[in-house]
Description:
By secondary structure, this protein is of the alpha/beta class. It is built from 9 helices and 6 strands. It has a 6-stranded parallel sheet. It is globular, with a radius of gyration of 18 Å. 2'-deoxyuridine 5'-monophosphate binds next to helix 2.
Amino acid sequence: PNTRLRVLLDMDGVLADFEGGFLKKYRERYPNEPYISLEERRGFWVSTQYGELRADLCDKAISIWESKNFFMELEPLPGSVEAVKEMAKMKNTDVFICTSPIKHYAHCPYEKYAWVERHLGPDFLEKVILTRDKTIVSGDILVDDKPDILGPGQLAIIERNVNSALYQKILRQNVWSSVHKSNRDWIMQQDSDQKHESVEPNPSWEHVLFTACHNKHLPVSTTQRRLLSWADNWRDILEGKC
Length: 242
Ligand code: UMP
């Protein structure tokens, strides 16, 4: 029996400050356009909320993270680098960085590796897992700021439909306790001709929700544990799994 604990850590919004880096570069590039402060952020998809603000702002938002040096220049979130290094030194513990690159692949995958090397050191390059489907990666814990973690088929559909009326309505009503299920039902409905055979319906890991500006308003779930920040007691979260 494997007695080691395998921890999967998301990168954007958990180790690297995606939201802060986005807002800074968006405001520099589009100083005369409206923006959404971090306090006003709701929902995982930045592009969706900008598209709601004004339709053309969806593409403007996307242009920011598709630009060269966006991922490379993200600041580490407070305490993240120290926590990861300490976690990786813990006995019987294996730490992996599990992150989904954007499909515009010109810069993002390279810059994610470069970021890891710069902030965590070259040894951590061994620990990087780039995947659009985290459900097929096995582990004990996945620390991720995305409330509903789905496979690539479902991800692609959501991306294609970020401006669809139903998804926008779900976001506006902020009925997050039901997003997971209604999202799934809606996907099944819309997607009868597309199969998701590669998606693991029962991932091995427990998803620990890492608090971010876009998810902090979601109702407290009785089933999902949260890590409020890297100042929060991440050791206790790991303990519960040993
Ligand atoms: N991302 C988008 N659109 C958004 C917000 C984020 O494509 O509105 C991208 C940035 C990251 C990825 O590469 O999604 C999030 O990956 P994970 O944090 O789930 O690993």
